[in-house]
Amino acid sequence: MLKRYFEKPPVQNATLVALTALVVYYFAFVFEFKYDFDWAVFSHEGQYGHMGLLMLKGLNTTLTITLYSSIIALGMGTIFGLARLSKFKPVYWFSTCYVELFRNTPLLIQLFFWNFALPYAFPEDIRFKLFDMHFEFWCATVGCGIFTGAFMAEIIRAGIQSIPKGLLEASYSSGLTFPQTLRKVILPLAFREIIPPLGSEFLNNMKNTSLAMTIGVTELCWSMTEVYSLTYRTFESFSVATLVYLGMSLAIAGILYIVNERLKIMSPDRLTPLRRVADILFWPFDFLGRKLEYVFWYFRKSPDQRTISPLRQSLRTVGKQTVRALKALFVAALAYVLYEVGTAVFHFNWEIILANLKTLLIWRFPNGDETEFFLGLGGLAGSLLMAAISIAGSFLIGLVLGMGRTAKNRVFRIPSLLYIEIIRGIPLILVILWFYQAILPVVFKVDLDAFWAATIALTFFFGAYIAETVRGGIENIPPGQVEAAKASGLTYFQTMRKIILPQALKQMLPALVGMFIADFKDTSLAYIIGVMELTRAAYAVNNRIMVHPFEIYTTVAVLYFVFSYFMSLYAKRLERRLSPETVRIEM
Amino acid sequence: MRVLKITAMAALLVLAASVAFAGPTYDRVMSTKVVKAGLSNQGIPFGFINDKNEWVGFDVDMAAEIAKRLGCKLEKVVVNNNTRISFVQTNPPKVDMVLSNMTHKRVRDEKIDFSITYFFDGQKFLARKGTVKDVADLANMKIGSMQGTTSIVNAKAYLQELGNPNPQVTGYDGEVAMFEALNSGRVQAISTDSTLLLGYAAKVPGKYELVGDFISDEPYGIGLPQDDSAWRDAINFTLQDIWKDGTYKKIYDKWFGPDSDYPFPLTSKIEMWP
């Protein structure tokens, strides 16, 4: 009876409205914040200057970094993504190294490395010249670009490889040359495959720029921190920064949505209104494409060219030789880089590394203070513990939200959707700060160790991401199975428990391992609230020694890399076991 | 029915969680016999981690001495420049007192209370030896300071006073990053409280020097929860007792005496109530 009522949309809407009203009522009238809001801090000039202007300046820097680093990332991603498909082995190895190295270490460590360690690799006068040119800003921009580029390279490679080999064979046998195949078959198909994940990388990149604050770039998060430590208006500054990030995420998501709409295959007589808008927006690109096509057609090779003129012949040999020379040059450059890296590693102060390795692995345990968390357990062990606890917790959240997100009932679907989209729209650094300084102490009035605060924040953050994975898994199950289950009299929860989830979870396993890696890498952000995980431990060790940043940050990067890389190998193996047919396109 | 039961349980839990267990800090500390102190772990020589992985420093010793005299156990909590105020500001406070080389300022006193001054410092500039002949040289230099402190605001104002309308002051994340910026040459001078500068300058003996006069007074106070006079009295009396029987001088000399790594003569006196 109740259940049947609940299936009607008006009832669901009413329930949602009632729930919202209840929440609003609770926080507006019942709940004691013990905190007086003062939004005027942003509009009035205070003792330490105009905070609103400070935030605006931060926003400007964030937008600039985001724009530049996106361009760098796209460039790096395209070059290395194509290089990953190269038949020339040194190029392939080099690009593989780039992708694996940068994907499997935390961005924070990379930024620290660029900022603290890299300058020491240059002679002093070059270093000073670098520092004169907004070094921190470019460090953050290029660092974010290179990091995101590694992810984009993988997406582009996977997109190109996803094209069925049969299509290529068909296009070759119908007489198309390789450039034509590339233009007419490979790229259009690959683009359709690539755009959505590429878009989410742009979004991630925007959020990642928030890490630039740790090296002193005055972007939005930096301004926010400055505002709350000068005016002590924690809630106000957090809220403004969060809303701005959410706004930017929504804008990027909106652009992506339109691009997606443009790429969808539709019959011309049944266009959706959005598609018309997208068509108008994309008209300049289409126009350019058509004109280029004309130019290409004009310069096309005639198909029955049996004889080759001597000039063409010599040009061709010159071309071949240039390619060969370039290859040799590349190998030589690679050898030089390897040699340089080798000598650098050889000249490392290994004593420093060995003396501090134990500290980096388990921090002070078991010689720490008894009031500290786990006798001061930290370093790599702390990071792993944090990752394990938070991923276990976020799996539960993700399961519930993922099911809620796919539910037909709005009362479950809309709150899940809101949760997922909001959490995915803000940088992790902000989520951690929210939990540590606002939600846990002020709203829930619990006083937790920084370790637990960060772990809880990570749990909620990754819960949203796992929910999306779960949703994908559930939607992948053929609908016939659900219908069959329903017909044989199983309830919703029985269907989920006995039929859908077991299959979906098995498919999701590689993605979940990937989430664990991401979580492990992101524990480095707990650094910001002083948790003694690996990054903070490295920072403390560096604080003490001061003169060997290169050694310390390299060691930490290697520690992160080793764990992430072996986990990702494991994920790959799982994937291969689940889907045996993989085809490699070479070019 | 089951749904109702679960809802009721959840509601009860929420209620139980929101019943504040705050009380006057003094009573709570005396009944639990634990005093929670917020301390920095990257401010040499006030609170830092030494090469034996121990958390030491002037502030740490002071906190330990206060806890000892109150007959309590000390629980150390990490704070940084951004969190040191908010940790005593929350209700109930995350820590009972904050010793984190924090200057007693009026604007800070609006949010939390302070003990009497327990350390006397002032802001200065640190630069490579010989680069600053005259204070006016500083005006056009790139200066590093710390985010979340008033040092950065002071330094900007001072450079403007020296005649640079648009001073370049970068706020780094903590003392370490700030000193690294000076050491690697990305800024020509750094500015914050002089004792902190001494602490880091001692890392590379003979390379750096303090330049110019104090550009501000920085009397350090212990940050305490707002409007909690029993607790504030207890701390103030304890501080004066520590001064009176010479323990203060002993702790001071351990960190700033002539034979220490960061010699800094003691010139003022703690405020004593008869």
Radius of gyration of chain B: 21 Å
Strand order of the largest sheet of chain B: 10-9-11-8-12
Give the low-pLDDT segments of chain B. Answer: 15-22
Number of helices of chain B: 10
Assembly classification: heterodimer
Text of the CATH class of the largest domain in chain A: Mainly Alpha
| Spans of at least 5 consecutive residues with low confidence of chain A | none
Number of domains of chain B: 2
Largest sheet of chain B: 5 strands, mixed
Outline type of chain B: globular
Query: What's the mean pLDDT score of chain A?
Result: 88
Structural class of chain A: mainly alpha
What level of helicity do the residues of chain A show? over 70%
Separation of the first and last Cα atoms of chain A:
63 Å
Report the sheet-strand fraction of chain B.
Answer: 15-25%
Beta-strand residue fraction of chain A: under 5%
Largest interface: A-B, 53 and 52 residues
Keywords (chain A): Amino-acid transport, Cell membrane, Membrane, Transmembrane, Transmembrane helix, Transport
Pfam families (chain A): BPD_transp_1 (PF00528)
Organism (chain A): Pseudodesulfovibrio hydrargyri
Main location (chain A): membrane
